[in-house]
UniProtKB/TrEMBL annotation:
Residues 1-33 are annotated as: Disordered. Keywords: Glycosyltransferase, Membrane, Transferase, Transmembrane, Transmembrane helix. The chain crosses the membrane at residues 41-66, 215-231, 243-260, 266-284, 296-324, 344-362, 416-437, 457-478, 485-505, 525-543. The gene is Dpy19l3. Its main location: membrane. One of its GO terms (cellular component) is nuclear inner membrane. This is D19L3 mannosyltransferase. The keyword Hydrolase does not apply.
Amino acid sequence: MTTIRQRRVGKGTEAAQDHPSEETNVKPDGKIPPDPAGGKLWNILSITVGGIGAISLGLLTSVYVATLHENDLWFSNIKEVEREISFRTECGLYYSYYKQMIQAPSIQQGLHGLVYDNKTESVRTINILERMNVYQEVFLSILYRILPIQQYLEPVYFYIYTLFGLQAVYVIALYVTSWLLSGTWLSGLLAACWYITNRVDTTRVEFTIPLRENWALPFFAVQIAAITYLLRTQLQPVQERLTLMVVFIASFLFSLTWQFNQFMMLIQALALFILDCLDMLPTAKVTWLYVIQISGLLLVCVLQFFNSMILGSLVISFNASVLIARTIQKNLKKGGLLNRLGKLILHVLLVLCLTLLINKFIKKILNLESDEHIFKFLKAKFGFGATRDFDANLYLCEEAFGLLPLNTFSRLSSTLLFYVYGFVLFILTVAAVIVAFRNLSGSNQVQLKEEMEEYTVTLKPDAAYSLVHSVLFGCLALSTMRMKYLWTSHMCVFASFGLCSAEVWKLLLKCLHLYSSQRTQVIKYSIPIITLLYVSFKFWPGIMDELSELREFYDPDTVELMNWIKSKTPNTAVFAGSMQLLAGVKLCTGRTLTNHPHYEDKNLRERTKQIYQIYAKRSPSDVYGILRSFGTDYVILEDSICYERRHSRGCRLRDLLDVANGHIMDGLGENEPDLKPSLYPRFCEEIKKNLPSYTTHFTRVFQNKTFHVYKLAKHK
């Protein structure tokens, strides 16, 4: 088991940009008169100070997480094999392709090895660029080879520093988004500080560096910042075109770097759809965003050699359905309240039916089954019937795919983030409901003008989008803990925007009959500054203590195993075992695998279930036959899986296998009535007794406190 042990040895105020205050003089034609020279100079100074703050905080965050990584593992001092083992589970698999490209005789041969790979899955040749999102590893490896830095920087440092550098991009994008929403860079400063002080819940980059989301989320944050700017009113055509280009590039890079891109894009498309139906976003801009999503995904599909999982994604079917439904239903946004509601219900039903039909048709034509495990998991998770499906239960029993733990909210509340978020969310939700009702009713009465001014914050398309985006991704985070990082980072943006927004405070003060322009301005700046000072003074000592704590990577059993494999087995040997361990075997030794953690392939899922029979109640001849069918030369058994205590009964890997095989589970507790006792003992336990029925097929060639390696006999 991998463990970590102790190591032995200025504030100010600024004018709002692009959000004129309520005192701004407006000409009868709606145009704002130009600011005097002093105002322009102040704006330039404010943008300069805010920009410097954004870059500085981004770089500080990058240095912060890099220092935590070094202090936690003593990365600069440990051996190469220990560094590679520290890339846990699927992280090691992804990094192995970067290493493979670096060590290839040429770039062309490296690419050929990825396109025609026969070491990731034994007795199969697969296209890694099609199956996995590893273009970032390819790009980095090529960049490392062509830049004159080999003498000064090791490949592993070039890789991890790039990921830590992307954290700077991430924080800058969050900072800019909050700044754009509120009109003051003070909001961005608060968002960045909240992101840092809530690091446990906003990122895990320091200990899962190569994870796909650590590549993708910075680009997603850039895309959201660009969408926030795009949804502003009075943009010049050139500004709009440039912003659309940024949205497209960011969407494309986000989709290229993460296999779960389609599900995030679908939630974003749902947010746009809801706001468009409620007439809270410009339809033309929403249409552009739909088209950008589709075109970005199709471009990724081409680069991934026409990956069928992308073509069969729900987001492409949904976006196409929305565009088709618009052409069918004319005058959707005309009429009274009841008329609009009727049209809206029909529109939603039409889009839903078209989405299901188009998606079903595409999957039927392409014979697509790569993502069926996800829908089985969702069906079981939300209570649509119990399942014995091994793959679905494998996800259900993992903490990362469970509900968001309640202690998350206590941590977020300790920095005041969750309290402020709830406060802003309540105000804007109430106001948004009122504005949506008014939009649907089509009321244009003059006497409502004064009331409408009270709710202008929700009439701003960028604020409305941020609200719905936050709510939908919040629902995702509550249902699946692994996805909380998409919500908590935007929570920092949303809460800081609301706290620094003149429109939000104006709305609240008018409701309390306390409104005045001066009071609004004082609150807009004083409360964020007080909050910022509180967070800084409370958490600065903890951050310093965290940075001063020195630890060391310590996993001697895995290191011993990897060294033995490299020195005692042929380069062509094929290894079977758990997905997580085999990813490390590939990275550290370069040996061929039978299975691996990248689970988005039906054949691989079936193969993994078969390989895992080593932990089930099966006969030695059955297990031997299964392993040899995949060309296995060596099988690695782990005591931590065979005698697992981490999960409760029913969620241990051996329990999942027993239920899938129709066998009664071990231990005290209930079993389903149709489960039967197995005719054979558990393979991983019985093989250690060296009985003749086992030694005929398996010979133990290595063991330590954690691992047992058996060589398979090659019978004719």
